[in-house]
Amino acid sequence: MPREQDNKAVVGRWFQGFWGNPWNPGIIDELAAPDMLLQYSLHAPRRGREDVRNFMEGFRAAFPDLNFWGAADLIAEGDYVVGRWEGGGTHTGPAFSAFLIGSVPAASGRKMRFTGTTVLRVENGKIAEEVGLDDGVTALRQLGLLKAA
After folding, report:
1. 80 domain residue, yes or no
2. Which domain holds residue 86?
3. How do 102-104 and 111-123 pair as beta strands?
4. Which helix (H) or strand (E) holds 120?
5. Distance between CA 65 and CA 91 in Å, rounded?
6. Whole-angstrom Cα distance, residue 85 to residue 96?
7. Which residues on adjacent β-strands are paired with residue 117?
8. Per-residue pLDDT tens for 42-94?
9. Which residues lie closer than 8 Å to 9 by C-beta, 6 or more apart?
């Protein structure tokens, strides 16, 4: 199997285990590089397995039904894999303050649903970087953190 196919398989497992519902916390130790970078426009960059794990535990506590899924086939070239996705969840848990623009009070009941594109770098079978561009404006409006002009 060529390297690109191997990398797409790793990313597919990562997306399902890390971003899917139910999530599998063990996927972090299995597939994330020790110093992995996780970076999206809605949140501060996260570096390393523990930082990534802490972020996702908080995100999942606040949005227990959080779920993301692929919106198109993965594209791979060399060490890079690109995926388009959609997803979201309902804020029924504790307050969540990991958004760069503000926080959501506990159990707001607000729903978010948005899309994005992510570029992942796979190094020796591990996710070294996950950098995404999401439709954060849509999510922040749905959560009441951004108001229309």
Report:
1. yes
2. 3-142
3. unpaired
4. strand 111-123
5. 8
6. 22
7. 84, 133
8. 999 999 999 999 999 999 999 999 999 999 999 999 999 999 999 999 999 99
9. 1
The rounded distance, in Å, linking the Cα atoms of 61 and 36 is 22
CA 90 – CA 37 distance, rounded (Å): 26
Taking Cα atoms as reference points, which of 99, 19, 10, 32 lies closest to residue 60? 19
CA–CA separation, 116 and 130 (whole Å): 12
Tell me, what amino acid is at 45? P
Give percent of the chain above pLDDT 90. Answer: 97
**Whole-structure pTM value:** 0.94
Hey, which residues does 18 pair with through a beta bridge? none
Residue listed under structure tokens 């607000």: 110
CATH number for 130: 3.10.450.50
Residues 100-106: what's their mean pLDDT?
A: 93
In this structure, the chain runs to a length of 149
